[in-house]
Amino acid sequence: MRKQKNELNHAGYKRTAGDRIFENLNALFFVLFMLLCLFPFYYLLINTISDNDLVARGSINFWPVGLTISNYIALKNVADLGVAFLVTLGRTVIGTITMVAVSAFAGYLVTKQEMWNRKFFYRMLVITMYFNAGLIPMYLNIKMLGLTDTFWVYIIPALVMPFNIILVKTYIESIPPDLEESALIDGAGYLKIFTSIIVPLSMPILATIAIFGAVGHWNAFIDSLIYNQTAIQLHTLQHVLYTYLNKTSNLAAMMNSGADAAAAAQAAQAALNNKVIKYTISMVTILPILMVYPFMTRYFQKGIMLGAVKG
User: Fold this and answer.
1) Under CATH, what is the fold of the domain 79-307?
2) Would you tell me which of 205, 219, 237, 277 could form a disulfide with 303, CB atoms 3.0–4.6 Å apart?
């Protein structure tokens, strides 16, 4: 009898053998898909803790061989890596917090019908998602503002993100207006309503855009490459990794250009070291995001669904 009840769902539908087969195949598919997504990270990990000679020959594919952590210890000798880590960490924390604050307040602002020229400013905000002046005008603008070779070039241009503001606006419009009206009757102003009612109720969507902002800041390197060319102390982790990738490519080109045996051997050893360092830095770079993202997933799923219900 109990087994029969378990075969029925809430609608009284009896699960058939075909249903169970489909569910098992569906679960198997998603397990395989999960393993497929995790394998690149696993591949990076096993190549960073394996014997370097085997890594250079491409012999490490499914499990580590010759376990060692010397590659991670050797990172302390990479120039400017520690500074780059602190710069990236700082821009991620400060940039994410300020972007979320601006997106939350701007999203709340454009929901107010009494805002002067509300539709015009909101449409101008949306237009910037599809049209921009281009890289050269952007660089000239940043330079005239005096932001080149400064830390704030990572923060100020990323304060206003139209897509995030639209998500916040849509989410706030789904909050029952009675809550705000009752607060207005009690004498609360817009700022009090925003901080005491809107922000606490909007945590799912704010957490969602925080994920967007944190991942974007942590992985960014184009702004470091273009705007902070001479400020080496402000280069990000991704910029440092990009530099090492270029160095490896240049050394490989030297080996293929017919250099003498000694130079070729030196280049080969340097290329090997840079390949291992490339793997190791890649692992160190993605590890913080991999550690934080699972804890934000539930907010992300709820926020992105509710924020996309209305246009």
Assistant:
1) MetI-like fold (1.10.3720)
2) 205
